[in-house]
Design brief:
By secondary structure, the chain is α+β, with helices and mostly antiparallel strands. Helices cover 31% and strands 32% of the residues. The strands form five sheets. It has a six-stranded antiparallel beta barrel. A four-stranded antiparallel sheet has the order 3-9-8-5, with no helix packed on it. Strands 4-6-7 form a three-stranded antiparallel sheet, covered by helices on one side. A hairpin with a 4-residue loop joins strand 12 (288-297) and strand 13. The mean pLDDT is 80.
């Protein structure tokens, strides 16, 4: 009984001792208030978030006045030459279906006729044909991603043609005359059921075709933005109009612009003529390479910035006004909290903890914002004060610290 009582007293004393040690260490750390983090390099982006408005050189194509059923021959974003067919107008939906099938059959017949005229002695090498097959498959995937069904059909015919040439180069000739006769028979049947009346809509100029309007086509003048004559335009105040009936629009120039406003502090980091990237705030959005066309002072706390872009895809065509992310630059170096930066004799640096001693290390800042700075990884060591290095324990919090201070 006595032994058990002594053991319990010993356990209580040990627990009390450990609690006292923990409390003492906690008190000393709280008193010093020192916190550190290891210096590590990372890639940081200079990101600016704002609202953007896309300005394009757009010409609205009026609606077809004769009535009928319209079938587009171009996908959104597809280029068209002056006089090229944009759409075909049929009397009714039945004729439209027949007309589309006739076009497909005619295309396949032309492809097969071309195969029949290929001279076996003038076939391309297998390597060239393999390269052509891979290229057509890549184009077919792009057409599928862009919902370009007419383009997919053209790619399919071209892919079949090249694959047939590959088989011929391997000595595997096939008689395709039966397939041609079958297609021509089907073509004849369709023509007997087809009224044959259709009209074509031709492109008035070369450009990029879009089959919808969003109501913002005439809100901001393209040439004004191109010439930087935008005054104090605010993107938030740009309002759209109700889209009128039309068959679509043409984007006449490959160059288009994004107009936005950023605060003066952020605008200082955006240089006219510089390169940057912009992305729309949507899932899976890709970065768009662009050039800073101009930075215009508004006399307020913000500046108007104009970016020039020249690439085009369906995601870009669908964007008009909304949140954007400007990726102005990328910096690789030590990411350091702004509060950890200090000065010694006018030299910028940080305090690091080396054992029980505080030491000063200088830094070369590449970029800074309200939260952190990015310091260069590579620096010249031929100085009296050494530079920060990877693995150094940067003091992020502490009181009355100075170079050479000893910490118990």
């Amino acid at each position: 009984m006595v032994t058990v009582k002594k053991r319990n007293i010993f356990i209580v004393i040990c627990i009390f001792f450990f609690i006292c040690c923990f409390a003492y260490n906690y008190y000393k750390k709280s008193e010093l208030g020192i916190k550190t983090e290891a210096a590590r390099c990372s890639l940081e982006e200079d990101i600016i978030k704002t609202t953007g408005f896309a300005v394009r050189d757009e010409a609205v194509l009026p609606d077809f006045q004769g009535g009928g059923y319209i079938v587009y021959k171009l996908a959104n974003g597809e280029k068209v030459s002056k006089g090229g067919v944009i759409a075909q107008i049929y009397n009714n939906s039945h004729d439209a279906l027949l007309g589309c099938e006739l076009d497909k059959i005619s295309g396949e017949v032309r492809m097969l006729d071309g195969l029949c005229r290929i001279d076996a002695l003038n076939l391309k090498s297998p390597d060239v044909l393999d390269s052509g097959i891979n290229e057509e498959i890549s184009k077919l995937r792009i057409n599928a991603a862009q919902n370009d069904y007419p383009g997919m059909f053209d790619r399919k015919n071209e892919l079949v043609k090249i694959m047939s040439e590959k088989r011929m180069s391997m000595g595997k000739n096939e008689d395709i005359s039966g397939r041609i006769e079958s297609l021509k028979g089907r073509e004849k049947e369709l023509k007997e059921s087809f009224s044959g009346e259709k009209k074509c809509i031709y492109s008035p100029s070369a450009g990029c075709f879009v089959n919808f309007l969003d109501g913002y086509e005439s809100c901001v003048d393209y040439n004004d933005v191109k010439n930087s004559a935008i005054g104090d335009t605010k993107v938030e105040n740009i309002g759209g109009q109700t889209p009128r009936d039309c068959i679509g629009k043409l984007i006449n120039s490959g160059d288009w612009y994004i107009l936005c406003r950023v605060c003066n502090e952020d605008a200082e980091r955006i240089k006219k003529g510089g390169d940057c990237k912009i992305s729309f705030v949507s899932e899976g959005a890709e970065d768009i390479a662009c050039t800073v066309h101009d930075v215009k002072d508004t006399g307020e706390s913000e500046k108007n910035v104009i970016f020039c872009c020249n690439n085009m895809n369906e995601e870009i065509l669908n964007f008009r006004k909304g949140p954007i992310v400007i990726k102005n630059n990328e910096y690789y170096g030590y990411k350091i909290k702004k509060g950890a930066v200090c000065y010694k004799d006018g030299i910028m640096g940080v305090n690091i903890k080396c054992g029980n001693v505080i030491s000063f290390r200088r830094i070369n800042v590449l970029y800074s914002n309200n939260e952190y700075v990015v310091a260069s990884e590579k620096a010249n060591d031929e100085t009296d004060i050494p530079y920060l290095k990877a693995g150094d324990n940067i003091v992020t919090e502490g009181k009355d610290l100075f170079d050479g201070k000893f910490i118990k």
